[in-house]
Amino acid sequence: MDPQNTDLELAIHTLVENFHSASSTNANTLTAQEFQSMLSKELPTMAKKAGDQEGLNKLLTEMSVEEGKGVTFKDFWKLVESLANAQFGLQSNEKQVKCVKCSLM
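The line above is the sequence of S100/CaBP-9k-type calcium binding subdomain domain-containing protein; the predicted structure tokens follow.
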């Protein structure tokens, strides 16, 4: 990677690289097992919430992955988008609370 890349560029590169490295066959999709392994390694909190096979199946369904189909990067991106939106909401609420405190002082 070029040392001139921004944090956001590096973050995007990391997401793509982690997805590709999770495939044992360098395929464009991940098996459910490869996806679960990537979650365990890269998103351990999410993996704990997914839990067992039933939880993983529910997560895959929420991502619109059909049973028996591989997880595409687009599917993975839906999960990333959902997590990023949740984080944005949390940080927005924190900023609003801080702003309210500031206006009360």
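Note on the example: The two ends are 46 Å apart (CA to CA). The first strand starts at residue 29 and ends at 30.
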